[in-house]
């Protein structure tokens, strides 16, 4: 039997793919590397950080940046794999727990969110890391289904929440119906209860509506979600329609979910006046803590207070993610949790 664990379950680490000069971060590399270094240092307070670097010279630079930011060197594991970009949530492995003692890693296809961006190197990262021993003795299973980690959310008990168009998409999974994809996810991930949304999006999002920017399980009965209260906001109609859909969802026992709205920050625009995808649902859960993206907005404090109530036994830590949203994502998008026993340190660079 296989089970997709919830993010709040025990983890041994978080995977990050570090930016470099050949990624879209080139014009803002100093700012984004500072953010990554602070993130790696924060993760290392609670668990290991597996950092994917483009080559060994890059790995040594990354090690120095992270340790100078306060990362625990004993909890930094550096893996080598060339990369197009840094969205580890979408090109990293999806980890399953099974009846066996070894973790099972699922390597789905990644095609740059339906071919919007080059992803040939990113699509091979998980396989390359596994071949190098970066995941220890975890088993690796591949699938031809295009599936990004940011597109799915689970309660850890066999329920999956997703926006239909991020999976049932001719640019991602041509010729596959929703029923086809449900069968694949049941077989691969052990999913038994599907919750599909048809609405929900935030401006500046290239993913077509990844669920991790919109709605997140906080426990098996509770979903927090992005809500816009300004009728003249460009995101108002879609988020209101999504809210109505969430209210209609039922758990496997036929009960409605406890729904907790998150505020929307004031719109943040890029140099050309385009709105960037700032939101609070894109938080990362680690052992004993929740890492919340903030944006220098008055709503930051409200979002932190809400998450404190939802995760009362965890530290609520904030990270200014304005550098990240320049490229269309936030904190959860650049990270992928790795549950299970930690791999042997000697397997890493």
TrEMBL record:
Pfam families: PAD_porph. GO terms for molecular function: agmatine deiminase activity; protein-arginine deiminase activity. InterPro entries: Peptidyl-Arg-deiminase_porph. GO terms for biological process: putrescine biosynthetic process. The keyword Hydrolase applies. Keywords: Hydrolase. It is an enzyme of class 3 (hydrolase). The keyword Signal does not apply. Its EC number is 3.5.3.12. PANTHER family: AGMATINE DEIMINASE-RELATED. This is Peptidylarginine deiminase-like enzyme. It comes from Thiocystis violascens (strain ATCC 17096 / DSM 198 / 6111) (Chromatium violascens). The lineage of its organism: Bacteria, Pseudomonadati, Pseudomonadota, Gammaproteobacteria, Chromatiales.
């Amino acid at each position: 039997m296989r089970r997709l664990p919830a993010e709040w379950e025990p983890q041994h680490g978080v995977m990050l793919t570090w930016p470099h000069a050949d990624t879209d971060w080139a014009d803002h590399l100093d700012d984004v590397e500072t953010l990554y270094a602070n993130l790696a240092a924060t993760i290392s307070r609670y668990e290991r950080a597996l950092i994917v670097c483009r080559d060994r010279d890059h790995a040594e630079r990354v090690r120095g940046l992270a340790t100078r930011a306060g990362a625990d060197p004993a909890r930094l594991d550096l893996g080598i794999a060339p990369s197009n970009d840094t969205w580890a949530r979408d090109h990293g492995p999806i980890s399953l727990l099974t009846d066996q003692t070894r973790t099972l890693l699922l390597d789905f296809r990644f095609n740059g969110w339906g071919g919007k961006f080059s992803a040939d190197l990113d699509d091979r990262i998980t396989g390359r890391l596994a071949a190098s021993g970066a995941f220890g003795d975890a088993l690796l299973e591949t699938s031809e289904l295009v599936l990004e980690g940011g597109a799915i959310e689970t309660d850890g008990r066999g329920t999956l929440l997703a926006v239909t168009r991020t999976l049932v998409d001719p640019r991602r999974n041509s010729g596959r119906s929703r029923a086809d994809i449900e069968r694949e996810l049941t077989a691969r991930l052990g999913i038994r209860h599907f919750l599909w949304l048809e609405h929900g999006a935030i401006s500046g999002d290239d993913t077509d509506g990844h669920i991790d920017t919109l709605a997140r399980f906080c426990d098996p009965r509770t979903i927090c979600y992005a809500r816009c209260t300004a009728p003249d906001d460009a995101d108002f109609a879609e988020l209101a329609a999504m809210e109505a859909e969430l209210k209609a969802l039922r758990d496997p026992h036929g009960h409605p979910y406890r729904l907790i709205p998150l505020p929307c920050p004031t719109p943040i625009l890029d140099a050309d006046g385009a709105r960037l995808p700032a939101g609070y649902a894109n938080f990362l859960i680690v052992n004993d803590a929740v890492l919340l993206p903030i944006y220098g907005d008055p709503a930051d404090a409200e979002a932190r207070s809400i998450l404190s109530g939802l995760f009362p036994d965890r530290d609520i830590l904030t990270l200014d993610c304005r550098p990240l949203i320049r490229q269309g994502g936030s904190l959860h998008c650049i990270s992928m949790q790795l549950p299970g026993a930690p791999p042997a340190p000697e397997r890493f660079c």
